[in-house]
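quick q for whoever's on today - can somebody do inverse folding on this one?? i tried earlier but teh output was garbage lol. tokens:
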């Protein structure tokens, strides 16, 4: 393999990855979602598996193929993702939260299609649980928790640093999604890897698989 040089440095480790976007259905034909394709989560899971880890990937709806060496746990809603992630978290040494989780969901899912004329008045939104925060509260010392943040605007990095603290993360992979050629759905990605001790490390525009391997290379090194 190009980036591991055949290294199996994650042998004996268990990795949990969340990826893709969640869908919060309001009725049988409509949902609240986002443009995530699952590509970054799948790349991370693939890289970890190639490096010898047992990998669980909790993945929102995705069109992309997942290699058979990855344990795939398909989910649709944020609530399903949370249940599965909490279940798999306890045994995971390394946790990558690459999913784009919906921030709001309809209070209820209507069994019948809601007439569009009543959507404006009938649709009631509630906040979705923060899966990462939920996991962070039960994190043990031997676990490494890595979050992702897709930011926009000039102050994207400051916003990302605040997020790292607010979410009690060991690491945060932050990127700007308002630049062309990276972010949602793109094949390539570019990011800043921020650590909880204040370090930051720029990763240049590379394929998402290569990005995954570069992240793993950096996490290994004590910061
Ligand atoms: N995340 C999560 N559960 C949520 C929302 C976010 O686990 N309900 C995780 C994401 O997988 C990501 C990190 O939290 O690793 C940051 O997600 P982001 O959407 O950037 O942060 P939010 O706290 O939702 O803030 P905002 O959307 O307002 O920027
Ligand atoms: Ca969010």
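ok took a stab at it. sequence:
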């Amino acid at each position: 393999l190009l980036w591991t040089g055949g290294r199996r440095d994650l042998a004996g480790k268990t990795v949990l990855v969340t990826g893709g976007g969640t869908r919060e259905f309001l009725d049988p034909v409509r949902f609240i979602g986002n443009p995530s394709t699952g590509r970054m989560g799948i790349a991370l899971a693939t890289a970890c598996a190639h490096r010898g880890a047992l990998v669980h990937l909790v993945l929102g709806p995705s069109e992309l193929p997942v290699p058979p060496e990855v344990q795939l746990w398909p989910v649709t809603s944020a609530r399903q993702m949370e249940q599965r992630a909490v279940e798999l978290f306890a045994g995971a040494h390394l946790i990558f939260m690459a999913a784009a989780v919906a921030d709001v969901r309809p209070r209820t899912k209507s069994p019948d299609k809601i007439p569009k004329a009543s959507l404006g008045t009938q649709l009631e939104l509630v906040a979705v649980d923060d899966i990462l925060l939920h996991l962070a509260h039960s994190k043990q010392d031997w676990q490494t928790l890595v979050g992702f943040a897709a930011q926009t605007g000039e102050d994207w990095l400051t916003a990302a640093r605040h997020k790292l603290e607010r979410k009690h993360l060991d690491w945060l992979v932050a990127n700007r999604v308002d630049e062309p050629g990276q972010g949602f759905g793109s094949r390539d990605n570019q990011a800043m890897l921020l650590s909880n001790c204040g370090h930051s490390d720029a990763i240049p525009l590379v394929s998402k698989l290569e990005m995954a391997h570069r992240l793993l290379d950096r996490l290994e090194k004590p910061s």
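fwiw Residues 18, 78, 97, 99, 101, 103, 128, 130-132, 147-150, 163 surround cytidine-5'-triphosphate (ligand 1) (CB under 6 Å). also The first helix runs from residue 39 to 50. so keep that in mind when u check it
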